[in-house]
Amino acid sequence: MPELPEVEALARFLDERTTGRAVAGVAVGAVSALKTFSPAPSDLVGRPVVGVARHGKWLDLATDGPHLLAHLSRAGWVRWYDAVPSTPVRPGRSPIALRVSFDDGSGFDLTEAGTRKRLAVHLVEDPDDVPLVADLGVDPLSDAFTADHLAGLAAARSQQVKGLLRDQRAIAGIGNAYSDEILHAARMSPFALTSKLSREDVDLLHRVTREVLTEALAAAAGRPAAELKDAKRRGMQVHGRTGEACPVCGDTVREVSFADRSLQYCATCQTGGKPLADRRLSRLLR
Predict the structure, then answer these.
(1) Is the CA virtual torsion 151, 156, 162, 163 positive or negative?
(2) What CATH number matches the domain at 147-270, 3.30.1330.60, 3.40.50.2000, 3.40.50.1110, 1.10.8.50?
(3) Model's pTM, two decimal places?
(4) CATH T-level fold of 4-134
(5) Tens digits of per-residue pLDDT, 117-131?
(6) What is the pLDDT of residues 47-79, one digit of tens each?
């Protein structure tokens, strides 16, 4: 799933290439991806793009009228064209969910692989018209994300720290991959309870969160959209590296599997050498 660094890089990539261009056409390839009916996709045609921004893990292509907001979910991506193919988009016949073309002949597709279609596109007058955007928590790269703010979030709830990092209503933009990376860098168990974190723990978690995301964004910045996925994979220390050696201590990276996802961690670095039970409802070691 694209997370804050990749979505921010995509937003910057699109902003550089589309701002000032007028939308020449919008073709819907997957009706299920379109979550709104008014404004209609045709209402974007002829509108100049005034900028592309990010809200958490949402892309926001803003025209001088409607905004096109897209959440790429697990398997969505952006495919850029300097020259849009002449072949028309055929609904249901390809991974293309939406194609947007511009007056200079360029454009992009929003694509989604696999059979579980979760990519979401909203056309709205204001980003806050999408409840999931309006309810987003603090952006972890913003000035509002202070150690005090994080301490308040941790104290206000008793949950596993990985869950707090992934909660979009608390902290916007971090998902499964970067929460693994942050907790590994902080040498913290993913199942540590937020209510039991000391102030020193919170300060460390705040600092490491900013560092991991800033470094990932720097690695992604300026790359073509087609290269961002591979750049993300190469930068991971533990996420997606089950069975490999931890680059810090050399221990084997372990995994905890759930029904629809998994997490990776290093027992030596994060849990005092104790493996975590690999069952959602098991008694978890901390």
Answers:
(1) negative
(2) 1.10.8.50
(3) 0.92
(4) N-terminal domain of MutM-like DNA repair proteins (3.20.190)
(5) 899 999 999 999 999
(6) 999 999 999 999 999 999 999 999 999 889 999
